[in-house]
Amino acid sequence: RHAIGRPVLRDAIVATEDRRFWRHFGVDPVGIAGAIRINLAEGRGPLEGHGGSTITQQVAKLLCLGNPYDPDSGMTEAEYEEDCRETTLARKIKEVPFALAMELKYSKEEILT
């Protein structure tokens, strides 16, 4: 069994990363808006610092990093690496359909493991 499957660790991750994890559908507009508000109040750009991504969005982004580079994709390898690590609003928008699809296909418990 994965370590994250242990209730104490699972609950700690949810509490620190995505406290509304059990209630949202993979994307948390309230969390994103709150992160933008905090970042702007602290004098940063809207997505610099607090990102507001849900655990599901973070998993979607990590899965991008796990996919091998495809030379037939039309992207250079450097563009692929940059796209996977991008922290812009455009990148966050790209994560949305993947996060929504994950929530439809997998249970919350499966997403955490």
From TrEMBL:
It comes from the Bacteria. Keywords: Transferase. The keyword NAD does not apply. Coiled coil: none annotated. Pathway: Cell wall biogenesis; peptidoglycan biosynthesis. Residues 7-113 form the Glycosyl transferase family domain. One of its GO terms (molecular function) is peptidoglycan glycosyltransferase activity. The keyword Transport does not apply. This is Transgly. The lineage of its organism: Bacteria, Pseudomonadati, Pseudomonadota, Alphaproteobacteria, Rhodobacterales.
